[in-house]
Design a protein that fits this description.
Radius of gyration: 19 Å
Shape: globular
Number of strands: 12
Helix content: 10-25%
Distance between the termini: 46 Å
Order of helices and strands: HEEHEEEEHHEEHHEEEE
CATH class: Mainly Beta
CATH topology: Porin
Number of domains: 1
Mean pLDDT: 92
Strand order of the largest sheet: 1-2-4-5-6-3-9-12-11-10-8-7
Largest sheet: 12 strands, antiparallel
CATH superfamily: Acyl-CoA thioesterase, double hotdog domain
CATH architecture: Beta Barrel
Structural class: alpha+beta
C-alpha cells in the first residue's frame, strides 16, 4: 500500500461529530478544487454509517459548488426511509455553510433473484500494458522544457489508484478520437477486507477518466488553459461484490455532447468478467472566451 492509498483510506474514515453528522478532510490532486470522487466516496461512507444490515446498491449525486481543499467538509445525513428491504439516505456535503454536493444513496438487504449481465470487452490484460505514469513521462518529454515542469505534477503525481490504459490518449497534445476508453485500474496496494471500504474506494475511483472520454472527439483536454471542464452530476450502481485492490476494467463511452455538456457512461468489470458496477456522469465542457 503506497502512501497515497494509506492517506485515502484515512480520508474515508470520517470523524463522527454528532448523530448523522460527520467530518472529512481533503487532499490536493492537482486540480482547482476538491476531487469529486473524494466527496462522493466520503458521502457514501457517511450514509453507510447510518444503515445496518444493508449494503449500498446505487447513488445519485449533484456537484453544486467547487470544494475548498484547505477546509474540512461536513457531511449531514438525512435518514429518509428504512423499509423492510430498502433504505434511503440523503447526504449534504457542506463547506462555508453551503452544500457543495447533494447525494441520495439507496441500500438493500441481501436478496437472491434472476441474473444477467453485459459481456466484458475483449481487451489485453493489464500485465501487458504500460503504467500510466511511464507513458506520461514520454508525453512530457515531447514538450518544450519550460512547459514540462508545469504539467509534470498533474500527470505524474502519486495516486491511490494505479491505471493501465488500453489505447493511451495524450492530454497534452489531444488529437480527435472516438469517445471510448478502456482502462484497467486498482488500488495501489492491498486493502483491509472491509467490503464497505472497497465500495467507497470504487466510488472514489469511478470519477477518474469519465470526463476526458467526452472530450476526446473535440481536441480538448482538462489540462488546456482555455478549457472550462467540471463534473455536474454522477450516478453509480453497485451490482456485485467488489475487491478494489484487484484489477478492474473500466469500459467508458460518451454517446452525446451538446449545450456545453457531455454525457459519459461506464461499466466496471472484475478480472474474471463479472459486471460489478455501472456509472453515468454529465460534465461541463466549454472553451473560455478571451476577455
Amino acid at each position: 500500500m503506497n502512501r497515497s492509498l494509506q492517506d485515502l483510506v484515512a480520508l474515508l474514515d470520517l470523524e463522527p461529530l454528532e448523530v448523522n453528522l460527520f467530518r472529512g478532510q481533503s487532499r490536493d490532486l492537482g486540480g482547482k478544487s476538491v476531487f469529486g470522487g473524494q466527496v462522493i466516496g466520503q458521502a457514501l461512507v457517511a450514509a453507510t454509517r447510518t444503515v445496518e444490515g444493508s449494503v449500498p446498491h446505487s447513488l445519485h449525486a449533484y456537484f453544486l459548488r467547487p470544494g475548498d481543499m484547505e477546509l474540512p467538509i461536513v457531511y449531514e445525513v438525512d435518514r429518509i426511509r428504512d423499509g423492510h428491504h430498502f433504505s434511503a439516505r440523503r447526504v449534504q456535503a457542506i463547506q462555508h455553510g453551503e452544500p457543495i454536493l447533494s447525494m441520495i444513496a439507496s441500500f438493500q438487504s441481501p436478496e437472491d433473484g434472476p441474473e444477467h449481465q453485459s459481456r466484458m470487452p475483449d481487451v489485453p490484460p493489464p500485465e501487458t500494458l504500460r503504467d500510466y505514469v511511464e507513458q506520461a513521462l514520454e508525453w512530457l518529454a515531447l514538450l518544450p522544457a519550460d512547459q514540462q515542469q508545469r504539467r509534470r505534477e498533474a500527470l505524474t503525481r502519486q495516486l491511490a489508484i494505479e491505471f493501465r490504459v488500453v489505447l493511451p490518449w495524450n492530454p497534452l497534445q489531444p488529437e480527435p478520437q472516438p469517445p471510448q476508453q478502456y482502462i484497467w485500474f486498482r488500488a495501489a496496494g492491498r486493502m483491509p477486507d472491509d467490503p464497505h471500504l472497497h465500495r467507497s474506494l470504487l466510488a472514489y475511483a469511478s470519477d477518474f477518466n469519465l470526463l476526458s472520454t467526452a472530450l476526446m472527439p473535440h481536441r480538448m483536454s482538462f489540462l488546456q488553459d482555455d478549457a472550462a471542464v467540471a463534473s455536474i452530476d454522477h450516478a453509480l450502481w453497485f451490482h456485485r461484490e467488489i475487491r478494489a485492490d484487484d484489477w478492474l476494467l473500466y469500459a467508458m463511452d460518451s454517446p452525446s455532447a451538446q449545450g456545453a455538456r457531455g454525457l459519459s457512461r461506464g461499466q466496471i468489470f472484475s478480472r474474471d468478467g463479472k459486471l460489478i458496477a455501472s456509472v453515468a456522469q454529465e460534465n461541463l465542457m466549454r472553451r473560455r472566451q478571451p476577455r
